Amino acid sequence: MANKKKVIVTGFEPFGEHAVNSSWVAVQELERLGLGEAVDLHVCEVPVEYQAVQGLLPTLWKEHQPQLVVHVGVSGLATTVTLEQCGHNKGYKRLDNCSFCPASQCCMDSGPDCIHSVIDMETVCQRVNESGLRVALSVSKDAGRYLCDYTYYTSLYLGQGHSAFIHVPPLGKPYSSQDLGRALQAAIQEMLKLLELDDKHNKHCNHKHHHHHHQHDYV
Predict the structure, then answer these.
(1) What's the start-to-end Cα distance of the chain, in Å?
(2) Residue 174, preceding peptide bond in cis (omega within 30° of 0)
(3) Can you tell me where the transmembrane regions are (predicted)?
(4) Which one, 51, 124, 166, 186, has least CB within 10 Å?
């Protein structure tokens, strides 16, 4: 199938008190489950380093030309699987695993303060919560101004909004790696459905407009 959808999903390496990062464990579980026959899934582990993210993300977007890039991160405060709606440009004061933070404390010097995903996370959240999965999802508009937010903003910027970020709780608080993998699978499948509808809608609108324009040819 030449027209397979390409999806990249990333987790983060361990940092701080997270000796095991549940985000990468969940992404590996997702890789085992897959996203179905029509999706070519590529996963990778992202360093908790601002400069590494700046180097890695443009390469991921350019080399793979994905339809969607989903970043997954751990939040010690999360008790649900949390879909982030937007990424932020400024406020990066917290030091990374290399004890570094950007001098400007921002992501892209001339970028907007906030970039929203083209995916409506409320819809994704509602659909997965109604699907009978035993994992609760919620939506947030603050990804935390650390590597998670920084990575999300960078991908939203590079991918014109075709990105998503999912925060997961630490393992066992309350969900197992299998639970988290299934939740990622369900959420990303719903995201892809929404993107597909968008594509169809855009094509349909263009077609209608085109047709209308040449109406006199057929009369």
Answers:
(1) 40
(2) yes
(3) none
(4) 51
Count CB neighbours of 4 within 10 A: 12
Mean per-residue pLDDT of the chain: 92
**Average pLDDT in the 193-209 region?**
78
CATH of 5-210, one of 3.40.630.20, 3.60.15.10, 3.90.1140.10, 2.40.50.140: 3.40.630.20
Which helix or strand (DSSP H or E) is residue 8 part of? strand 5-12
- Condensed to tens digits (0 to 9), the pLDDT of residues 143-163 reads 999 999 999 999 999 999 999
Residue 218, pLDDT > 80, answer no
Measure the CA–CA gap between 10 and 82, rounded to whole angstroms. 15
Residues marked active site are found at 84, 148, 167
On the question of pLDDT at 85 being above 50, the answer is yes
Q: Compute the Cα dihedral for 1, 127, 165, 133 and give only its sign.
A: negative
- Which residues are bridge partners to 166 per DSSP? 72, 83
Strand order, beta sheet including 5-12 = 39-46, 5-12, 68-74, 163-168, 81-84, 137-140
Q: From CA 43, how far away is CA 28, in angstroms rounded?
A: 8
Model pLDDT, residue 204: 75
For residue 213, the model assigns a pLDDT of 42
2-29 mean pLDDT: 94
List, in order, residues 6 or more apart from 181 with CB less than 8 Å away.
Answer: 26, 28, 29, 30, 32, 33
